[in-house]
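Lay summary. Proteins are chains of building blocks that fold into shapes, and those shapes determine what they do. In this project we predict the shape from the chain. Here is one chain we studied, written as its sequence of building blocks.
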Amino acid sequence: MSVTVKNLTKIYGAQKAVDNISFEAPKGQVLGFLGPNGAGKSTTMKVITCYIPQSKGTVKVCGHDVSEESQAVREKIGYLPEQNPLYKDMYVKEYLEFIANVHKVPKKQARIREMIGQTGLEREQHKKIGALSKGYRQRVGLAQALLHDPEVLILDEPTSGLDPNQLVEIRALIKELGREKTVIFSTHIMQEVQAICDRVIIINKGKIVADDPIDKLQDRVTATVTVKAEFLEKVEEKLLLQIPGVMDVVNRNGNAYLLSTNGKLDIRPEIFKMAKQNNFTLVELFKEKSSVEDVFQQLTRGK
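And here is the predicted shape, written in a compact code that computers can read:
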């Protein structure tokens, strides 16, 4: 395994930021690391990257213990933290040359050119970092994380500040990198998780509450199912609430309604039956598929 976390705990004073979590991340996998603000995501990433020590437990990267072999771990990792620390008075290419020297990158000029092209910085390479937009600064941060060709990439909110076109390009790059490296990244953009991840870990209040392949994660939402029903006519919500199995009704807009029900029930036949009995015309009727956002909210809300 490229990254092995076993019984990891991190305590700040009286606060337990990470509470006895364990997981593994193999090579060739993009692992989404999700959680509400303050859940322990960034703390876990900082322990893996040797920025802070753990209170208890063990963490290994490519077989190297973060406590005993921190230099070896740093050589294996490319890290883009949430607050991207850059030397704003340096030019983009100058900064990447500096990072290449730190890592003693062989054939550094060729590698810098490759990273500038891969992260879309060709037109910005001769500008000062301080003159760049937030999106391009993120690209510089990603380029420095990749420069020494690490086996493991740790990316904390890597697409923050990118415009829609940049998002598509960087997501595709992360997905491509995940074929040959271990990529662990956090994000609050749920569509990004579905577009990039092979597997998702959700952490809440320092504990792992889900660890599933992306295609299995949606199966966790079983408590309720939402059905969308749209009518040609206006329908009183109290009439919809009388349908057997309906627990809640929300008027989305106009004559469209979202009906929540127990996950084991399919209320669509009952909705059709009610419409027929009252001479209502059904324009649309379908069961909405659970999303990663549904799972995230169900596992982290109110806990």
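What the prediction tells us: The first strand starts at residue 3 and ends at 12.
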